[in-house]
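Page 42, continued from yesterday. The earlier attempt failed because a stray header line got pasted into the input along with the sequence. Redoing it now with the clean sequence only.
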Amino acid sequence: MSVPLQQARGFYENRIFPWLNDRLAANPVLEDIRAGALAGARGRVVEIGFGSGLNLRHYPRAVRSLVAVEPNLGMHARAAPRISDSRIPVDVVVSTAEKLFLPDAEFDTAVSVLTLCSVADPASVLSELRRVLRDDGRLLVMEHGLSRDGGIARWQNRLNGIQRTMACGCNLNRSIAALVEGNGFRFQSVRNFYAPGMPRTHGWLTVGTALKA
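This time it went through. Structure tokens are written below.
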């Protein structure tokens, strides 16, 4: 990749995409779903794909502290005001989620909201989340992914290359429930549904609570 192209890509990933992501992810429908997905969070929490901190205002009183893992520096800049206003102590870690430099069995809750779609190696990410969770810890997920409807799934596969380019590695065609259950977790509760008002290629959601298998 040439230097000008690298610079343009870096500008898009760190300046344009964080703004665009906020615009898309903060719609009222997703905010309501997000609040429900996070209602079971408690104790010490690790959140991967922290982004610009859109989850912060939805964490319940049972959350004591948060470790926020996010590799995109542009997201950190947008998150700063939300962290400053948060009642929850937040420690920010600039890192991908494939290797969490965090102690074993340290957290009561792990959170992945609209993140497993984008990580480079979801199996490694889930393995790391399992490692840092206590034995009675829980994983909370709210993710979009591959629809059960064959016609929608075909369109997701067709559009995936464009989606990955425009959304910095986000995939439309990952089966989230299968990923979670295939990498050391079992769902205690899970719902799959289309988010109202969203394109079905982008709005098939998996929302659930998983425990260590």
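Notes: The chain has one domain: 3-212.
Reminder to self: strip header lines before submitting.
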